[in-house]
From TrEMBL:
It comes from Fibrocapsa japonica. Residues 1-20 are annotated as: Disordered. This is Calcineurin-like phosphoesterase domain-containing protein.
Amino acid sequence: LANGNHDSELGWAIKGQDDQARAQTMPMVCRAHRQQYFADVSASGEPFYRTNRDLGASAPEGNYYAWEWGDAKVIVLDPYWNTKDSPKANHKAWDWTLG
């Protein structure tokens, strides 16, 4: 299960002046529930996956990862968490960012 707009983990919806206020926003609540029921690939402890190890409210661990299978490299990216301004607000789909 990769992150995405289907699970409301949208960076521009994280509002609040402190960590406690941000923890109550929909993206943070959804992230906590996803991690409770679907462990991040980095939690497996297997060297098969390579993932980010960023921790904290601003960048969740495991929100992008990659692995190699034979000659293929599979990369899963999360453009939603790091996009802090809603691209829908200005109708500019190219404003999505990976960080």
